[in-house]
Write a structure and sequence with these properties.
Blueprint (H helix, E strand, L loop, with lengths): L4 E6 L5 H10 L12 E3 L5 E6 L4 H6 L5 E5 H10 L7 E5 L5 E8 L14 E4 L2 H10 L5 E4 L15 E6 L3 H5 L2 E10 L1 E5 L6 H22 L1 E8 L3 H7 L7 E4 L6 E8 L5 H9 L3 E7 L6
Parallel strand pairs: 1-3, 1-4, 7-8, 7-9
Antiparallel strand pairs: 2-3, 4-11, 5-11, 6-9, 6-10, 12-14, 12-15, 13-14
Bound molecules: phosphoribosyl ATP (PRT) and zinc ion.
Zinc ion binds next to loops.
């Protein structure tokens, strides 16, 4: 058994670039070539298995890969349609490739109540998730299973509504469709089976997970520096999103002003800066943090 950790990733598609970028930010050095199924990480004992996203849950479950990055929608669907129970569980949510699996219908023919889906035809590429939803709601409907282009189904007369992934909503709008129910919220997730790893691989996995966690946290975390009147420091600290005990330093040549520096773990909006300014803060700088480890 190889001591190289194997990570299954989508080769090409909506998850691929984000997955590669995440791993590169974690310090993994690799090149993805056109035809290759495996990419070797040059500076760590890790191989990347580059495949179609639908295969990732079963590859992780069947030991072809130790961990994988996949859309939660694909993981849930594969678990529901697989003949055997798939040993693949979410170990970390990654926060990219967010989308929703929605029910949508042509304008003017919306289903105010989902109960009116009864005895209608619904086109989807997600029969597993849709069937489970209909079962839970006690609705009997006909599923029209498609491999793609689901948004065309109502206009060509093969379905009354659709169940498909939506992110910006532009595709639905271009096809005159409106969402009337979201049945699953999804984002990219890191998955692993319950199988135990060799101690060496386990250590390496822990290291990679710690780095991924650091990259995700540092994406929103910012370092804020500002000058403020000493008596406003408490109020200003309260306004800094997700900050913990800031550093306060006296400013040379000023009795009243101090410099305040804080790590903010939540998103900082323009509105936050305007509020800080109205409390007397000046020279406000918001700096990105490249790496974090706590
Ligand atoms: O070839 P392979 O099988 O690996 O890829 P694929 O074609 O099956 O999947 P891909 O690359 O299209 O999507 C991979 C994953 O990205 C999905 O499983 C989701 O987890 C996630 N994702 C995020 C999306 C979208 N956003 C998305 N918008 N997947 C698909 N879409 C579709 C949507 O259904 C619509 O048709 O993209 C189109 C544009 O969406 P709008 O709403 O922005 O117009
Ligand atoms: Zn796919």
């Amino acid at each position: 058994m190889t001591e190289r950790l194997r990570i299954a990733l989508q080769k090409k598609g909506r998850l691929a670039e984000n997955s590669f970028n995440l791993l590169r930010k974690c310090g993994l050095n690799f090149t993805v070539r056109g035809g290759g199924l495996l990419a070797r990480v040059k500076n760590m004992p890790i191989d990347l298995l580059l495949v179609r996203d639908d295969d990732i849950p079963s590859f992780v479950a069947n030991n072809a890969a130790d961990i994988g990055i996949v859309g939660e929608n694909v993981l849930v669907e594969e678990q529901l349609v697989s003949n055997v129970e798939l040993d693949a569980n979410i170990i970390m949510r990654l926060g990219f490739s967010k989308c929703k699996l929605c029910l949508a219908s042509p304008d003017g023919k919306s289903f105010e109540s989902i109960k009116s889906l009864k005895n209608t035809r619904i086109a989807t590429t997600y029969p597993g998730v849709l069937r489970k939803f209909l079962f839970k709601e006690d609705i009997k409907a006909t599923l029209v299973e498609m491999k793609g282009a689901v948004e065309l189904a109502p206009s060509i007369g093969i379905a009354d509504s659709i169940c498909d992934l939506v992110s910006s909503g532009a595709t639905l709008e271009a096809n005159g469709l409106k969402v009337f129910k979201t049945i699953l919220d999804s984002e990219a997730v890191l998955i692993q089976s319950n199988r135990s790893l060799t101690p060496k691989k386990e250590l390496l996995l822990k290291k990679v997970l710690r780095r991924i966690d650091g990259v995700i946290k540092s994406a929103e975390t910012k370092y804020v520096m500002l000058n403020a009147p000493r008596e406003k420091v408490d109020k200003i600290t309260e306004l800094l999103p997700g900050s913990d005990s800031p550093t306060i330093v006296p400013l040379a040549g000023s009795d009243n002003l101090v410099a305040l520096q804080a790590v903010c773990t939540e998103k900082i909006l323009w509105e936050n800066l305007e509020d800080l300014k109205s409390l007397g803060a000046r020279a406000i700088l918001v700096l990105p943090i490249e790496k974090m480890m706590s």
